[in-house]
Batch of 4 targets.
Target 1
Amino acid sequence: MATVGIIANPASGKDIRRLVAYGTVFDNQEKVNIVRRILLGLAAAGVSRVLYMPDYYGIVPRAVEGLSSRDRPPLDLAAADIRLTATQDDSMHAAAAMVEAGARCLVTLGGDGTSRMVAKGCGDVPVLALSTGTNNVFPVMLEGTAAGLAAGVVACGAAGGPDVVRRAKKLTILKNGRPADTALIDAVVLEDSFVGSRAIWDVGQLRQIVLTRGEPHNIGISAIGGQLAPVGPFEPRGLAVACGAPVAAVLAPIAPGVVVPVTYEHYREIAPGEEVPVARTPCILALDGEREVEVRAGEQVSIRLDLDGPAVVDHKAALAAAAASGYFRLPPPAAQNPGRKP
């Protein structure tokens, strides 16, 4: 029985960057609409079972309730067996529970922060991440029906292989030699001593940036790397930028509608397995756009580029592979009234 997990983060697209920047408010009703189309796409692709992350808004149940009895797909739907905390950990725990329950693909609705948490729990199960957050470098902008079809053909075994499912990179945060956390896009060293409102918007606090990827069209801290030395999502390299001493500056869109000059000292390419030491402590590390790790004075911290991040579904390749195999072709309709002339 092909099983797909859906993790729709009700908190994504609502952080403080709506006040300090010009981010779109992605309300939960629109997430309901997207999930509704995902479910219809999954059913059309042959998926029979869907697990979903429970949440205070009831995104997936509302999506089902909004379907007419005629359109309601024949899916076995069940909530993942987790204890809700109304924190970002729910996404991680839901991903782990879905994998344990047999999910073959996960579809997520959120931004880079949601994707980061799902990556902590998904193991080797591939993820198709849809953009409904503020920083959306890791997720893709994709219509829900197409997302359901792509995740469905992967879960049903109609598409796979290295052209369809690819390994993303990640950054491993090492504290005193031990892994402490991970990031998918960027790890940023901030000259600060408390987590506060979590989001980054003051470039004056930047001291170091380590990136798995950065392209000129990105929005967020990774855009800085994209303007200096672009790195693609699957290239086996990363980028480190030192921002301590203002030697030069680059103009970058660090948040929606916020394009500002960012000063830097130097930048360099980093190789897989290479560790970038955090130069000064105490500090705060922001991971994928959110302040997460407090570093005390005297702690030894470094950031390592690794190639064993989450498996990611290429939706275009998945649907192309399914089409090439004839997965969606139907037998000719049975002749009706064969004795009747047209």
Target 2
Amino acid sequence: MKALAARRRHPAAIALLILVGLLVTGGAYSFAAPKDANASAAAADTVAQGKTLFLANCASCHGTGAQGTNEGPSLYGVGAAAVDFQMSTGRMPMTSPNVQAPAQQDIKFTSDQIAAIAAFVASLAPGPAVPDQQYTTVIEPGTQENNEAIARGGEIFRVNCAMCHNFAGAGGALTRGKYAPPLQGIDPVHIYEAMVTGPQSMPVFSDTNIKPASKQQLISYLHAIENRPEQGGMTLGNLGPVSEGLFAWTFGIGILIGCAIWLGKKAA
């Protein structure tokens, strides 16, 4: 015991203890650091690539720093979700100035390029991220639990969305030449992104207003009504009284006029 105590009091003991501590700390860091460093380097490369693409394709309208110009709004705070929605649906870059950017089938950029631009814009200021797959997976009808979730999604849609997008998601006209687009055949990710970013005239439905799980239920409701069998026959686009009135006027009144002419000739 006396020998051990003597070693503890030795002048080199403190230096040896510090050296051992440094070796343990350095060893632990060497195991953790490479993965984080590689991930950070990859993220930095993606942002740099996105900035290059942005300057070449977007800066003419949104400014070299995405601060906005007279031709395009500022992109600070819009997040990766807004970039992914606008570019993946072909709305951006706009083909021509208009009151509203329509969706296009011809997508100008690859998914990797869009992700890079989204990463650059997201690095400028906090904003909504591209949603997790967990909340963009469609709930399929069948079980009672799933059917109830889809029914709740229908309630949320009718309260918050049907006044613009129509009760069946068929879309509708707005003021000053704008319109709420139809929601049939839309990728669930893009529906979610539209809700959290509020493109065009659409309000923003943040996760504090409509929870992510409720957004998933709403998306599942739209998928369900799109694929449901139409028991009543021809839907006329689910546009309501406008299309039904046009159908009645074109065919119904035409038949009545034909009958009146036939009866008039018969009486003569």
Target 3
Amino acid sequence: MEIFTTMRSLQAILVIFLMFLPFHTLNASTLDDIRSRGQLICGVNAGLSGFAEKGASDQWRGFDVDFCRAVSTAIFSDPLKITFVPLTAEERFDALKAGKVDLLSRNSTWTMTRDINLELEFVGVIYYDGQGFMVRKAQGLISALELGGVKICLISGTTTDPNVRAYFKAQKIETEIIAFNSRAELLVAYDAGKCDAYASDRSALAADRVKLKNPDELIILPEVISKEPLGPVVLEGDSQWVDLVRWTLFALINAEEIGWTSDHEKNSKAENGPEREALTKAAIAVAQKLNLKDDWVADVIGKVGNYSEVFDKNLGEGSPLRLSRGLNALWNKGGILYAPPMR
């Protein structure tokens, strides 16, 4: 009798213990769930030119969108097996934690507070950015130090708000901060003249400038007031999924470095070169642990392109945003972008 009583007590303790385990540890792996579903669910910006937006044919496009396509290709050998979920800045992390998306590819800044307190995993930096200010040329301003007494609009739930307040406090400049819940609301207010300046990541300012009335009459001031390393985000606790997303990102960057592109006609040097051979062998060596096909990297580069191709198409100087690579140039071409070796 005492044995049965003890066993029942142990079972009760086990049940209580399991109740308090994180939900995702009680289920199949993220990759298993995605494969079973037949779709990757990717959280993206609700509408940011060059990064994530719906085109005329109702198809999603953009820099962050293409990263989702790269991950989908690694999993399914198909860049189109994705459901895109548009999320506001305030919704994004809660949606990820609630399991509404598998991956957040949505211009999100990697910070210690978010990384640790929210129990999230930033897999790497996909875009090095910094916050700044956009104003109208007619205002005659050439520096953020001239923004005293003006109304500055920004989006709530982002790192912009505390960074802007800290910047002007340090400069002993009085301003009026107006926060909006969504980018759409802010842009309407800016066009209506309710804002004298718009503060955000400089990439976002460039993206939104093309949506505003008379974009040629708007300028981005030279000051960069913060560090904004933007990167894809997943939940902690599934190391296989973290590794898969992380090394898909690093594959894009490493492929650019060795000249491996989606254009087979331009791949003569990379095709049989020692760098590509080493990268391919390394990808095959880990494919089983990642539960991917041996040629997963070749699939990703062939169907989505390397980092340079994705950047140039969506953000580069030939795109409506006309952004230079800047800090996002490779480390051996004047920037700070590089990925850990894959071999």
Target 4
Amino acid sequence: MNNSEQKTYALETKTVIKTYQSDSGTIHAVDDVSIQISSGEFVALVGPSGSGKTTMLSMLAALLQPTSGKILLDGQDLATMDDRQRVTMRREKIGFTFQANNLVPYLSAVENVELMLRLNDKLDKTGKLRARELLARLGLAERMNNLPGQMSGGQQQRVAIARALIHNPSLVLADEPTASLDTERAYQVVQTFAGLIHEQNRAGIMVTHDLRMCEFVDRVLLMQDGKLVRTYDNHDEIMNELISARH
């Protein structure tokens, strides 16, 4: 492959560093991390508590600026954007769901999903139909008109996942999306999540502590002490090594 044919990625980070100052000195929350993720690829980011994975995800979501390095989404560097540009990028190009699902309490499930389309001036008949189809696919056909307070934590999380996907973002981010789900529903949600990312040709990253969910991803990135220490591409290797590391 010559220079004119170099592969382009939906998401690419180059030597990203995030540091904080404390009384004991400089803390490297993320230390020199470079990753490349293609459209249609679903990746899990794993590691022990304090490994830097949530900080990394926050930078990829344009919620936190790196101390140094580049974060390229569709070729645009999030690290050099001002606040207004980052807000626009989050609204148009990034879908994300975190452990706190942040649903609007006075909007129904379908209205919460439609909200992303409304913010982007894309709430038309087609968008409304897609919102309902997506909720149905996530097992919420009977809950579309319920308010968040009328749904379980797991149901609310699935609404948040639908909201993250509805506006066809280039990048989809999920922080522990199955934390409030039972095992059966967790498998169903992540499998559906993976299927939608592949079908819609989005780049997806999921932070998870549940290594069983790695069954549905294309690669696993392992972080320790702020560093990316290993990439697993083979599913059997992923499951054998990561599960054995817990014992």
